[in-house]
C-alpha cells in the first residue's frame, strides 16, 4: 500500500512548513486525479493512521477529485471522460492520446492556525 508512504511524505511536508511558520495545520488540501495511481479511500485511511501522535493529529485531509480531461484530435476540443479507463472522445469515439488532466497528486493548500 503505497498510499501510506504518500501520507507519511505529506505529513513530513506539513510538519516542516508548520514548524517553519510556528503554526498548527488544521487541514491539508490535495488535488487527486484518477490516473495518479492513488486510491482515494486508501490515502484517507493512511493519512488518518500516519497523523496519530504527531503535532498535526487533528489535521483533516481535504481531497478535490480532478476529472480526466483529454484533447480530442478530431473535435479539436478538450473533453471530460466519464471513465478514466476508456481514453476515447465521448462525443466522436476517437482515441485520445493527449491527457490534459487527471494525473494530479498535488498538495495545493494548508489551512493553519497560530
Q: Would you write up a description of this structure?
A:
The chain is an alpha+beta fold and 114 residues long. It has one domain (2-113): 2-Layer Sandwich (hypothetical protein PF0899 fold). It has helices at 2-21, 40-51; strands at residues 24-32, 60-65, 69-72, 77-80, 98-101, 105-113. The strands form two sheets. A three-stranded mixed β-sheet has the order 2-1-6, covered by helices on one side. Strands 4-3-5 form a three-stranded antiparallel β-sheet, with no helix packed on it. The two termini are 34 Å apart. The model has no long low-confidence stretch (mean pLDDT 95).
Question: What is the secondary structure topology, with strand pairs?
Answer:
Elements: H1 2-21, E1 24-32, H2 40-51, E2 60-65, E3 69-72, E4 77-80, E5 98-101, E6 105-113
Parallel strand pairs: 1-2
Antiparallel strand pairs: 1-6, 3-4, 3-5
Helix pairs in contact: 1-2
Structural class: alpha+beta
Count of separate DSSP helical elements: 2
CATH fold label: hypothetical protein PF0899 fold
Structurally, the number of domains stands at 1
Helicity range: 25-40%
Shape: elongated
Q: Note the beta-strand portion.
A: 25-35%
State the oligomer.
single chain
Cα-atom radius of gyration: 17 Å
Distance between the termini: 34 Å
Biggest sheet: strands, sense, closure?
3 strands, mixed
The overall strand count is 6
CATH class descriptor name:
Alpha Beta
Strand order of the largest sheet: 2-1-6
**SSE topology string:** HEHEEEEE
**Arithmetic mean pLDDT:** 95
Amino acid at each position: 500500500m503505497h498510499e501510506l508512504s504518500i501520507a507519511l511524505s505529506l505529513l513530513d511536508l506539513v510538519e516542516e512548513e508548520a514548524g517553519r511558520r510556528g503554526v498548527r495545520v488544521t487541514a491539508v488540501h490535495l488535488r487527486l486525479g484518477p490516473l495518479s495511481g492513488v486510491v482515494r479511500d486508501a490515502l484517507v485511511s493512511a493519512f488518518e493512521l500516519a497523523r496519530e501522535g504527531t503535532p498535526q493529529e487533528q489535521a483533516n485531509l481535504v481531497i478535490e477529485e480532478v476529472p480526466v480531461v483529454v484533447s480530442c484530435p478530431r473535435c479539436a476540443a478538450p473533453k471530460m471522460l466519464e471513465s478514466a479507463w476508456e481514453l476515447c472522445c465521448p462525443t466522436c469515439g476517437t482515441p485520445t492520446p493527449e491527457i490534459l488532466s487527471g494525473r494530479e497528486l498535488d498538495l495545493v493548500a494548508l489551512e493553519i492556525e497560530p
